[in-house]
């Protein structure tokens, strides 16, 4: 039997098959109720996870758009004349690079 975990139906069939194998020794009525509850909880967990990942990617996209806009503003202001950082509230304060960023930078060189 081929297991197709690339689509939702394949993953669900795989989980159902494994759960049926685990619950074979139990009473049919109790096992079915337990399986239904477990599937319901798994679906809720997966749904919550998908919502959180979507929220996270939306947040990352928003931050990326803000950074791009700030960079564009900085570059356009530099061509028109010098602008101090205090004039633009959206510009984050400069900070020292973390150890991880320093290592990444040294790898890039």
Written account of the structure:
The chain is mainly alpha-helical and 109 residues long. It has one domain. 72% of the residues lie in helices and 0% in strands. It has three helices and no strands. The protein has helices at residues 8-23, 28-80, 99-108. α1 packs antiparallel against α2 (28-80). The longest helix has 53 residues, at 28-80.
What secondary-structure arrangement, pairings included, does this model have?
Elements: H1 8-23, H2 28-80, H3 99-108
Low-confidence segments: none
Q: What's the helix count?
A: 3
SSE order, one letter for each helix or strand: HHH
Tell me the strand percentage band: under 5%
Mean model confidence by pLDDT:
78
Number of domains: 1
Q: Strand count, sense and closure of the main sheet?
A: none
Main attributes of the structure:
109 residues, mainly alpha, 72% helix, elongated
Summed up, what is this model?
By secondary structure, this protein is an all-alpha fold. The chain has helices at residues 8-23, 28-80, 99-108. It has one domain (8-108).
């Amino acid at each position: 039997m081929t297991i197709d975990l690339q689509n939702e139906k394949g993953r669900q069939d795989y989980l159902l098959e494994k759960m049926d194998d685990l619950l074979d020794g139990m009473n049919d009525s109790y096992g079915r109720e337990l399986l239904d509850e477990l599937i319901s909880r798994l679906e809720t967990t997966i749904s919550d996870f998908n919502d959180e990942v979507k929220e996270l990617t939306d947040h990352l996209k928003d931050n990326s758009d803000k950074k791009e806009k700030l960079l564009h503003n900085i570059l356009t202001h530099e061509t028109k004349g010098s602008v101090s950082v205090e004039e633009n509230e959206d510009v984050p304060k400069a900070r020292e690079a973390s150890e991880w960023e320093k290592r990444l930078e040294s790898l890039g060189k």
